[in-house]
Amino acid sequence: MRRALVAAVFLAVLMAAQCLHAAPLDAIRDILRRHLLNPPDEAALAALSDEDLPGKLRDIDPYARIFPAGEYRAPVAGGNSWVGIGAGLALRGEAPVLHVYRGGGADRAGVPDRVRLLQIDGQPVVGLDPEAIALRLKGQEGSTVRLGVALPGGGEESFTVRREVFSPLDVELIPPGTQRVVRIREFAGGLTRPALRATLDFMSGQDSAAKATRVIIDLRDAPGGDLYEAFDLAGLFLPPGTHLGTIRGRDGYAMEIHAPHGDKYSMPLTLLVGPETASAAEIFAGILRQHERVLLVGQTTYGKCASQTDARLSDGSVLRYTNKEVLFPGGDTCTGTGLTPDLAVGDDELDMLPRLVERAQSFSP
Amino acid sequence: MRTAILISILLAAMLLGGCAGQHDPRTGGFFGGVAGLGGGGYKDRVAEREARLAELRATQSELDAEKGQLETQKSAAQAQLDKDQARVKAMQTEIAALDKKTKSLAAKDGADKQRVADLQKRVTDLKGKMNKQASSLDDLEGSGLGDADMDLRRKQLEAQRDALRKEYDLLMKMQMELAQ
Q1: Which of A158, A233, B54, B89 has the fewest CB atoms within 10 Å, i.e. the most exposed one?
Q2: Which domain holds residue A113?
Q3: Does residue B22 contact residue B32 with C-beta atoms inside 8 Å?
Q4: pLDDT level of residue A2 (50, 70, 90 thresholds)
Q5: Which residues of chain B does A198 touch, with a Cβ-Cβ cutoff of 8 Å?
């Protein structure tokens, strides 16, 4: 009798557990079936299971992701402060690269931007996955870490960096100000456009001659963000009513976006782009290029003119999937091809901002 | 007699020695001092010291003025920050009220339901952005940024707050339309 009871309880627990798993899978199938940009194959939907769910989702949508409950972080929102070395970690091939933020601990210790990280506190990082590297870079406020890096021009150097509270600028102004170089790392909805405006106005001040001087926007480390922010930013540099592009959705949905009214900037523009320039950043660059409003300098961009949305599931996990695509005014998309620069540079030059700026300033097609 | 002659010779030698060489009393020695007294060196020295003192006083008053200016700037910046924080707090209160109203909106039909859902999402987003504004302002002093970057950050926050205010006005209008 007791055995039967235990077995029944065990079975009930097992069934409940299965139900808990089954519910999100069904919800995932339903969401993808109804909302995925390109209708998915039913067989692929049926094949979705807990086993290698991320891999199976990628087979259906290359940008789909599942975030377990509690591990989800809302898309970029700009300007949050954190305790750390004031640098982001990116992978170039297998190599970890540091993206150094202005005013952070790494910047103040003299670590150059976009350097390859070789060692942390004397321990080589080769072979470590990004999470393990990030974990070693993290630490208590006030603690220090010794970073060994490969310099862009050749050679190695080590720097002692203090971990501290740091709040990055939403749009960075790269010194010297006379070069008029600004950097955008993320397209945060409703925040990047006013931040860019404030930065351009701050840079020019009351000098009307400066307002007509070329501005260089560095998008090399901009992996994307809010799609509408990309349109809003592009609209700052184009006359009101200009066709910026079309957002294509499921089942024939199409929305044309036009430049709004308001104050406009007419100075010549150069955008620095590279393989890590993606999504919203590529859309911004692509729109301005279609209207012959910018010169692109750097390397071919990532190639993703599609946007994703997040849906929270019943178990608290979050599904990210592609639901929209952006077409430029001519009907083209950058998906799969990226944007080819007007002036292409090599890998070394792409990492050395002063040289890149020099090339950009002397370039006239 | 011999002693008197010796003293006279010595005095004459001292006086003659005082006429020769440098007239700067700082070069030291009794002869130098005698020469300084005789050649106007002490006057020069006094004049030089007075000039230096005047210079020091001018520098000091410049520093005092600069300090005063910095303190004024600092207190103006603090006053501005307090004002910005008060504005953000007021906007947070307004948005919280809008959020409450939006949540209580009853959708009449399908189209309204979608609009209400969109509005609720936008209000939630706006709430999040305003909270971030508040913490960014609080963090401004300890942001690790230099003076010029901090000025820029302040301008960026100001521009962002104005943009969020416009978004709030728009959502408020939408809420009123849906409530009717």
Answers
A1: B54
A2: 82-166
A3: yes
A4: low
A5: 152, 155-156, 158-160
